[in-house]
Amino acid sequence: MIEKRQFYIGGRWVEPLGPDQMDVVNPANEEAVGIISMGTAADVDKAVSAAKDAFPGWAETSIDERAALIERIIEVYKRRTPEMDAAIRLEMGAPQTFAREQQTPAGIGHLMATLEALKSHRFERSSPRGGSLIVHEPVGVCGLITPWNWPINQIAAKVAPALAAGCTMVLKPSEIAPLSALLFAEMLDEAGCPAGVFNLINGDGPTVGAAMSAHPDIDMMSFTGSTRAGVSVAQNAAPTVKRVALELGGKSANLLFADADLESAIRYSLESCFLNSGQSCDAPTRLLVEAKVYDLAVDLAAKFAGQTRVGDPAREGAHIGPVISGLQYEKIQGHIERAIADGARLVAGGPGKPDGFDRGFFVKPTVFADVTNLMAIARTEVFGPVLVMIPFQTEEEGIAMANDTPYGLAAYLQTGDQERANRVARKLRAGSVYINGGSPDWDVPFGGYKQSGNGREYGEFGLEDFLEVKAITTA
After folding, report:
1. Which helix (H) or strand (E) holds 395?
2. Torsion-angle region of residue 374: left (phi > 0), alpha (psi -120 to 50) or beta?
3. Strands 132-138 and 124-126
4. R_g of the chain, CA atoms, integer Å
5. What's the pLDDT band for 475 if we cut at 50, 70, 90?
6. Where are the domains of the chain?
7. What are the pLDDT digits (tens) for 46-101?
């Protein structure tokens, strides 16, 4: 049993102020693998006070000093990557190979992209007409709330630019996947992060998250999670008029035209949807297929879904693992059952666990055909390995259907016509558009339109999120 009962506040591991504790459960076998303390509003006050006290000194550090700290963090992180692999596997069920090749490297990716952005950013420049100085300064004390699905990815995407900007911070990671965050705190401590610059407390959203969002001494909230929770953060933050950056949910469309390489496109579509057991906010979960190849596309999707392996995260291999929790498993089952009741045609997977899995929160890779864009399964973020397929007749109809969603985090586009690709991409209302299997890099902006949030993360765009702009004008 991993015991992590302390919080990291003011450069030290300290005891929590409340008595509540929570088990960390391995979703692959439903057994507790760790225990953490749950914070209170008083713990938030203590952490914010430490960050507030540290802010003046850290805000005045040079670019070279901040860069040196990030470089030291990178060195420690690289040395301790096997520990990060293990933490992510235990806390959220990421298979060993996937954790090692994609989840853990995300932390390094963000640290290095932020380091490059810090070294190239112009923190001071003259105004276009001269006579004034435009200065970028740190926002102040930042509250960071991160999710469980890509735990270290989202932690590094917030902590690294906050450090680079000269901000101090309080991090609340997901309480159901906290092990990677606690390990990251150890890394920052080992790298010599000044006391109070980075602070970590565990806890739930209604208690710790709400206290952070409403805290008068927190100048900015950066939140990644569900749209429902993001709305709560914004509402709690409103009375103090603090900056709020939100990266929220998605129901990303994947437009597949008849002139694409159909077999490759379908295989890519399923792999991308089922990646991380479907627990990615930008997963291409709505596959919109040009009608003339729709029936063949459905057959291929059923075939490839049947070939998708589900397996124990402790084993190497290209299989998917469980979903995060019993609660999430039940939610996904409810979505699947409602889709069947609504008349969607089940062509792969379905309710229940895969054969051979009596324990653990494993979900069958599932594909629905003959879905309409008005069905709940096409409009609701399932956050599991569930794909819906919808036919469209014309390019215009496909674009309209793709945009007919309250979300706008990502969109995908597959076609053999480059002119069409460029044309359609510009008409899709989403923060990211991926053409023919293109994948993002760590320095490309990430964020969404509409109810998928506001602000942009990664690289220079993430750095700018944590900066204020000041004009200094002299007579």
Report:
1. helix 395-403
2. alpha
3. antiparallel
4. 23
5. confident
6. 2-248, 253-440
7. 999 999 999 999 999 999 999 999 999 999 999 999 999 999 999 999 999 999 99
Dist CA 431 CA 448 (whole Å): 4
CB 34 within 8 A of CB 179: yes
- Pairing mode, strands 7-9 and 12-14: antiparallel
Under 8 Å between Cβ of 387 and 350: no
Fold agreement between 2-248 and 253-440: no
Helical spans, DSSP H, in 284-325: 294-307
Q: Which secondary structure element, helix H or strand E, spans residue 236, and what is its range?
A: helix 227-237
User: 91, 175, 247, 457: which one is catalytic?
Assistant: 247
51 burial level (CB within 10 Å; 0-12, 13-18, 19+): buried
Confidence of residue 130 (pLDDT cuts 50, 70, 90): confident
- How far is residue 234's CA from residue 243's CA, in Å, rounded to a whole number? 9
Comparing C-alpha atoms, which of 454, 451, 406, 382 is closest to residue 227? 451
What is the C-alpha to C-alpha distance for residues 237 and 445, in angstroms, rounded to an integer?
Answer: 24
Is 457 considered catalytic here? no
pLDDT of residue 430 exceeding 90, the answer is yes
Cα(351)–Cα(189) distance, rounded to whole angstroms? 45
Contact by Cβ (8 Å): 109, 442 = yes
Tokens of residue 285, six digits: 């979960």
* Average of per-residue pLDDT values in the chain: 97
Span 327-378, pLDDT tens digits: 999 999 999 999 999 999 999 999 999 999 999 999 999 999 999 999 999 9
Query: The whole model's pTM is what?
Result: 0.97
Nearest Cα to 378, choosing from 394, 398, 414, 402?
402
| Partner residues linked to 172 by β-bridges | 145
Which CATH number does 2-248 carry? 3.40.605.10
Residue 33: partners with Cβ closer than 8 Å, 6 or more residues away: 1, 2, 24, 25, 26, 90, 91
Best CA proximity match to 385, nearest among 310, 255, 249, 273: 273
CATH numeric code, 253-440: 3.40.309.10
* The residue to which tokens 């594909």 are assigned: 367
Residue 170 in contact with residue 44, Cβ under 8 Å? yes
